[in-house]
């Protein structure tokens, strides 16, 4: 693993998490509105969305938020929460890497750390949903062995679904991903 990256659990309601939530929601909301209405998200819309967001499902013992730091700066995050599809699965959510840190390997490291943490919690699979326009995320999941499925649940923003069966840790050093033992 690149020594500049460190991945560790973070409280879902910490100032670092709040800063990442704002960046995440700004980007995904702007992309949504640009595609559908040709505009960026209104500041009041963003404020309302952030206020209405419930990240408590990412709190232990049933959830987990991992934050990736690059050179000490909070560069991205990924969450795990209890699955809607049964006790042997978890859902991966809020996968995000700030634009300035993309292309540095953090997305793959965050995914591997989340997968390792899910295995530790006894999950046999991970599921997620995403949107059509988030092509970079879909590519990342596919490169890391996630399989696209049909619809797994109803959600206004869910347009594509992915699943990963969790076996033993994958690849050299997979068991060494910081945050996996969270």
Would you kindly provide a brief summary of this structure?
This protein is 31% helix and 25% strand. By secondary structure, it is α+β, with helices and mostly antiparallel strands. The chain is globular, with a radius of gyration of 16 Å.
Commentary on this structure:
This protein has 182 residues and is of the alpha+beta class. 31% of the residues lie in helices and 25% in strands. It has 4 helices and 7 strands; from the N terminus they run E-H-H-E-E-E-H-E-H-E-E. It has helices spanning 15-37, 43-52, 106-120, 135-143, and strands at residues 5-9, 64-70, 73-82, 89-97, 125-130, 147-149, 160-165. Strands 1-2-3-4-5-7-6 form a 7-stranded mixed β-sheet, with helices on both faces. A hairpin with a 6-residue loop joins strand 3 (73-82) and strand 4 (89-97). The protein is globular. The two termini are 17 Å apart.
Question: Topology, pairings included?
Answer:
Blueprint: E1 5-9, H1 15-37, H2 43-52, E2 64-70, E3 73-82, E4 89-97, H3 106-120, E5 125-130, H4 135-143, E6 147-149, E7 160-165
Parallel strand pairs: 4-5
Antiparallel strand pairs: 1-2, 2-3, 3-4, 5-7, 6-7
Reading side by side through the largest sheet, how are the strands ordered?
A: 1-2-3-4-5-7-6
SSE ordering:
EHHEEEHEHEE
State the helical fraction. Answer: 25-40%
| Residue-averaged pLDDT | 90
Major sheet size, sense and barrel closure:
7 strands, mixed
Q: Flag low-confidence runs.
A: 171-182
């Amino acid at each position: 693993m690149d020594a500049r990256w460190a991945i560790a659990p973070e409280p879902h309601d910490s100032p670092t998490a709040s800063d990442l939530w704002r960046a995440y929601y700004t980007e995904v909301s702007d992309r949504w509105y640009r595609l559908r209405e040709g505009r960026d998200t209104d500041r009041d819309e963003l404020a309302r969305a952030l206020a209405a967001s419930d990240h408590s499902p990412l709190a232990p013992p049933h959830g987990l938020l991992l934050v990736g730091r690059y050179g000490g700066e909070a560069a991205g995050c990924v969450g795990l929460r209890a699955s809607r599809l049964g006790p042997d699965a978890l859902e991966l959510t809020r996968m995000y890497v700030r634009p300035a840190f993309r292309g540095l390997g953090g997305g793959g490291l965050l995914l591997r750390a989340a997968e390792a943490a899910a295995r530790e919690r006894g999950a046999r699979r991970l599921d997620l949903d995403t949107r059509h326009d988030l092509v970079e995320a879909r590519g990342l999941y596919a490169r890391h062995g996630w399989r696209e499925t049909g619809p797994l649940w109803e959600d206004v923003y869910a347009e594509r679904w992915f699943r990963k069966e969790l076996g033993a840790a994958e690849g050299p050093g997979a068991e060494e991903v910081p945050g996996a033992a969270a």
